Amino acid sequence: MTTRSISSCAFLASLASTSAFASLATAGQIAVSSIGGGVMLNSGPFSSIAFGNAPQNWTSVSLGAVHASINAGGIATDGKVTFLAADTDRGLAMMALIDQQLAPGSSSLGSIHMDTVANGSNLAYVNDAGGLVTVTPTSPNSRFATGNFSWNSNGSGDAFAWAGLAVGNSMTFRFNRIVGSPLGLMDPGTFQFINWTGSAWALIDVPQNLVSFSETDDFGFAATVVPAPSMLLLMGGPLMGFSLIRRRATR
User: Fold this and answer.
1) How far apart are CA 187 and CA 189, in angstroms?
2) Is 88:65 a contact under the CB 8 Å cutoff?
3) pLDDT surpasses 90 at 94
4) Exposure of 160 by Cβ count < 10 A (0-12 exposed, 13-18 middle, 19+ buried)?
């Protein structure tokens, strides 16, 4: 009786401990295909700065804070389109940061077209004061966003993110030059992917030709949310503990 009582307490304590860890472990992982054989984006902690407002209204202040956090790790975002996974107050998000956001500006010196699709009833966030990017309404199947970003490349930026992502959600992104309009970004090497190491952001090493516009002036990739290894370990923890407890209780 004593053995079973202690084992039950130990099991409950194990579950409580694991639950506490699991509640803190909100990190996600997004697998990107067609880029250098595939890259993995581990999400970084942005819940305190993104997004904090209504859908399709990602503010310049919030966007500037995201850039500041990335820049603090020694990664330049000026003149680049930066892709990353982030843990936000709206759940896991896949972000596309277009140029560096320092201060709002009204001049249009940069422009790029984007088409992106995400499956599931995900939320859409876009920092686009001109309203040039449209997003289809929430649906149980998929959402589509399309349009031109136009911003002051001398100090301002723009961005788009799919948020509320869950394991199994998939996305596609495609960017195109706008004929007759200035790009306002570095070329070649326009695009970059960054990864959260657990303590800082790190630039993923990808050959320049794979992060530049193609001969047909487009750039694209597919991405899928996959289970994060840390969560798999946490899920396995209580099962292992329960197995040991049951063996001890039956002796």
Assistant:
1) 5
2) no
3) yes
4) buried
* One-letter identity of residue 89: D
Which helix (H) or strand (E) segment is 245 a member of? helix 229-249
Answer for the pair 93, 161: CB distance below 8 angstroms, yes or no. Answer: yes
Return the closest-CA partner of residue 94 out of 60, 131, 143, 132. Answer: 143
> pLDDT tens, 157-213?
899 999 999 999 999 999 999 999 999 999 999 999 999 999 999 999 999 999 999
Q: Output the DSSP codes for 100-149.
A: --SS------EEEEEEEEEESS-EEEEE-TT--EEEPPP-SSEEEEEEEE
What amino acid occupies position 51? F
pLDDT in tens, 134-147: 888 888 889 999 99
Give the separation between CA 41 and CA 236, rounded to whole angstroms: 23
Q: Phi-psi bin for 21: left (phi > 0), alpha (psi -120 to 50), beta?
A: alpha
Residues 133 and 147: their CA atoms lie apart, in Å, by 4
**Residue 246 pLDDT > 70:** no
Answer yes or no: are the C-beta atoms of 89 and 50 closer than 8 Å: yes
Tell which residue, 98, 102, 101, has the closest CA to residue 110.
Answer: 98
Beta strand pairing call for 201-203 and 133-135: unpaired
Residues sharing a CB contact under 8 Å with residue 232, sequence separation 6 or more, in sequence order? none
